[in-house]
Automatic annotation (TrEMBL):
Domain of life: Bacteria
InterPro entries xref list: PgpA-like_sf, Put_PGPase, YutG/PgpA
Organism listed in the record: Sporosarcina pasteurii
Molecular function GO labels: phosphatidylglycerophosphatase activity
Gene coding for it: ypjQ
Record's protein name: Alpha-ribazole phosphatase CobZ
Occurrences of domain YutG/PgpA (ranges): 30-163
Gene3D superfamilies named in the record: PgpA-like (1.10.3760.10)
Amino acid sequence: MVSSRKKVHSKIVEKATVDALKRRGVLLDDIAEIVYEMQLPYNEKLTMEHCIESIESVLKKRELQHAILVGIELDELAEQRKLSEPLQQIVESDEGLFGVDETIALGAVFTYGSIAVTTFGHLDKNKIGIINELDTKKGRGVHTFLDDLVASIAASAASRIAHRTRDDEEAQESQH
């Protein structure tokens, strides 16, 4: 059965995702710095432009777009104190046992395989770059979901680069 509801075009969702990140103070360059740091040891020819291109590609994926839009919306609703209790307090305080923030971000990472999953775990644990800034902004906005979502984007983009690097190496080997 075909739904009579109007579908939202992917370009609109992609723009809304990038706009939401910017509205929350996250620029693609901030994420690119994390991707660069994660992948440079494995790819000496890596540039920031490669990292940004990979992030832009990752942000075209519906799974990531939807996760980002939902997570940012929940953070903003918590800032406005519009969540019902006890969820309001749990999200506002980024309670340690909450885990739904990581679950949403991790679900979005699965598209990019086990490298993305392990990279996400590393970033979630070590809070590199803007992820740390978002995680430690206590009292200056709620970023319960956003820090994990940025880790998800960075992990996915890093995984994408890792796979492409391997593909390029194999293509060069087959030419010899």
